[in-house]
């Protein structure tokens, strides 16, 4: 919540959105350091006004953005976790391999060449590059509603 408070009082962001100067709004978001933020986006209805940061990230929190007089300027979304960071952290903490795929060819994995991995079942045994795994999967939402599928690949036989 502190990231939202910090951004909502930035004069350049508010002034840019109020006047339609999206270059000013974007420049302000690019220069405001929000701890751990990897992507920020402001929308108004279905229109994206400003979108800065990494492209393949986990969904963030969303909050209304208002001018000091209370005028609604849009909805701001801030994410603090990119997909590759999630993959690396999960792999490091559990030892299991991870594959995350989204739309538009987005794919990240703790395995080499995630784009060339075979189709993965939602659950059950699978062989990848000659190694046997038991796989389970679940759906998550990425930034701006991007549907993500996450597969957890546990090596059969202890690795």
Q: Helix/strand/pairing class, anyone?
A: alpha+beta
Number of helices: 4
Order of helices and strands: HHHEEEEHEEEEE
Overall 3D shape: elongated
Write up this protein.
- By secondary structure, this protein is an alpha+beta fold.
- Helix content is 24%, strand content 38%.
- The protein starts with a helix and ends with a strand.
- The radius of gyration is 19 Å and the shape is elongated.
- It has a 5-stranded antiparallel sheet with strand order 6-5-9-8-7, with helices on one face.
- The protein has helices at residues 2-8, 11-19, 22-31, 83-94; strands at residues 39-44, 47-53, 61-66, 72-79, 97-101, 107-109, 123-128, 131-141, 147-155.
- Helix 2 packs antiparallel against helix 3.
Short key terms for the protein model shown above:
four-stranded antiparallel sheet; 159 residues
Brief account:
Helix content is 24%, strand content 38%.
Topology:
Layout: H1 2-8, H2 11-19, H3 22-31, E1 39-44, E2 47-53, E3 61-66, E4 72-79, H4 83-94, E5 97-101, E6 107-109, E7 123-128, E8 131-141, E9 147-155
Antiparallel strand pairs: 1-2, 1-4, 3-4, 5-6, 5-9, 7-8, 8-9
Helix pairs in contact: 2-3
